[in-house]
Write a structure and sequence with these properties.
This protein is about 45% helix and about 10% strand. By secondary structure, it is α/β, with parallel strands linked by helices. The strands form two sheets. Strands 3-4-5-6 form a four-stranded parallel sheet, with helices on both faces. A two-stranded parallel ribbon has the order 1-2. The structure holds nicotinamide-adenine-dinucleotide.
Length: about 240
């Protein structure tokens, strides 16, 4: 999903691809280059304030202007409050919630100076609804939705827009990782069918289908959209669905 979003941004000037996995970021940079855009890889840990700040500074030193910022890094762990390792709380909250906060901190200082900017966070349907065995992940994504609403209120008066996209199951490496870790509990080898069966559209989503919503929200076409929560879920959360 991160890659698809960066590709969409290629038309808007220098793209900074921030990831703790520099090889993955470079792969995305190459794809953007091949598509005629220009991008730089910025190795950083979103859970670390100094690392995020330094990445923004490196981006600017290379001529980049952070004007559309999309915090997308995320990790997933499952379990209940009884059986999940305590470390999962710090780990997942650190990347998913604090990571968005630290990115906002760096981005909004710049946005305020320029009196413009767009911030579109990637949360999850787990940011608006509960999900069994997803307590920590849900808490982290609810935190993102709450933060975005506050950013919209605090900075809307300056013309700076903040929105959040909440995908359901999307075909990315995160889904592969989830299947490898927990597939036995969630549909086994047929994991993608398991998830597809819960979606009225009858399939899991593609990263580009999330990226196109981010692209819209970041663009002038969404000039009156601020503080919105966009589900991109094939209708999975529209109500009880029986196949
Ligand atoms: N794939 C899905 O089904 C799905 C569903 C709902 C929400 N999401 C959310 O979408 C976002 C993107 O996920 P994805 O599916 O592309 O997953 P992914 O695992 O393919 O990509 C996540 C990226 O985050 C990076 N990352 C992880 N920890 C980091 C850290 N501390 N600092 C910097 N980078 C870090 C990883 O290196 C990876 O490139 C996440 O926030 C995820 O929670 C995904």
């Amino acid at each position: 999903m991160g890659r698809a979003i960066c590709m969409r941004f290629a038309a808007h000037g220098l793209v900074g691809v921030l990831d703790r996995n520099c090889d993955g970021a470079r792969e995305t940079v190459d794809l953007i280059g091949a598509a005629g855009g220009s991008a730089v890889a910025l190795e950083a840990d979103v859970a670390d304030a100094a690392s995020v700040d330094a990445a923004f500074e490196r981006f600017e030193a290379m001529g980049g202007i952070p004007q559309m910022v999309v915090p997308c890094a995320g990790i997933e762990r499952i379990g209940t409050v009884v059986d999940e390792p305590l470390e999962d709380w710090d780990l997942v909250m650190g990347v998913n919630a604090k990571g968005v906060y630290l990115t906002a901190r760096a981005a909004f200082r710049r946005f305020v100076e320029r009196r413009s900017g767009s911030f579109v966070a990637i949360a999850s349907d787990a940011g608006v609804l509960g999900s069994s065995q997803y307590g920590v992940y849900c808490a982290s994504k609810h935190a993102v939705v709450g933060l975005i609403r506050c950013l919209a209120l605090d900075f809307g008066p300056l013309g700076i827009r903040s929105n959040v996209v909440c995908p359901y199951t999307i075909d990315t490496p995160m889904l592969d990782d989830f299947t490898a870790r927990y597939g036995g509990e969630y549909g086994g080898q047929e994991n993608s069918d398991f998830w597809a069966d819960s979606v009225p559209l009858g399939r899991i989503g593609e990263a580009d289908e999330v990226a196109s919503v981010v692209d819209f929200l970041s663009s002038p076409a969404a000039s009156y959209v601020n503080g919105s929560v966009y589900l991109v879920d094939g209708g999975a959360n529209a109500g009880a669905y029986h196949r």
